[in-house]
Amino acid sequence: MKSRKLLSGPYLFWAASFIIIPLLMIVYYGLTDKEGGFTLLNLAQITTPENLKALGLALLLSFISTLLCLVLAYPLAMILSEKNVNQTSFIVLIFILPMWMNFLLRTLAWQNLLEKNGIINSILGFFHLPAQTLINTPYAIVLGMVYNFLPFMVLPIYNVLAKIDKDVIFAARDLGASGIQTFSKIILPLSVPGIISGVTMVFVPSLTTFVISDLLGGSKILLIGNVIEQEFKQGSNWHVGSGLSLVLMIFIIASMALIAKYDKNGEGTAF
């Protein structure tokens, strides 16, 4: 018993230092003014036209990115779940491999691909095709989100599909169910925990990101994450930045509640 407590010591220290204390600081700054008095004005800053526009655009691009990730990930996860272990392990490794690379470097690579004199336009120019305006657009931001967060959609869905008993599917087909009926009545309902987990793991970071919109949007397209970053770094206004962060935490708490409701057994856990 004592050894377990000793082993949990480093984790508790890490959790307190990098999770609990920073979170308490955000709550403190978000609910106080510069004089230290209690206020809700920092939270109310989300209602300004500029912040509402940034939040609305972030919600829209996050929704589109999440939907695209789901459309791409589900068929791929189904294909992976039907492969043998060695083939699946190799293909899953290909998806996990980019995650070992620094997030910033992956996004910078897309910046080099999409910029005006980048690789894509160079290839188009080689074939005497007109150059395309790809960088500094919402499309570039969505592309960056899909590329960076697609593995977080594939892995939980694959994890759930791989656990489905094949005998259940065979039994349905023996009873005369068509492929569409088998999918809609058995496979899809059983994969809901993985879908919910994947949607959450893509939507939340897409909503709060500021690096992707900074690099691929050229600081011309402001999402709510960029507004919060500016409040902390440029305006040095920790109180407003923390207040806006607390508003975004509502979406995080809602996503956690969604996972807890539909994935009670942790079947959609990606790792």
TrEMBL record:
Membrane topology, from the record: Multi-pass membrane protein
Keywords assigned: Cell membrane, Membrane, Transmembrane, Transmembrane helix, Transport
Keyword rRNA-binding listed: no
Domain ABC transmembrane type-1: 55-259
Segments passing through the bilayer: 12-31, 51-77, 89-109, 139-161, 182-204, 240-260
GO CC entries: plasma membrane
Gene3D superfamilies given in the database record: MetI-like
Predominant location: membrane
Keyword Transport in record: yes
Pfam family, one: BPD_transp_1
Subcellular location, record wording: Cell membrane
Swiss-Prot/TrEMBL GO biological process terms: transmembrane transport
PANTHER family assigned: INNER MEMBRANE ABC TRANSPORTER PERMEASE PROTEIN YDCU-RELATED (PTHR42929:SF1), INNER MEMBRANE ABC TRANSPORTER PERMEASE PROTEIN YDCU-RELATED-RELATED (PTHR42929)
Family of this protein: Belongs to the binding-protein-dependent transport system permease family. CysTW subfamily.
Protein name: ABC transporter permease
Organism: Hungatella hathewayi
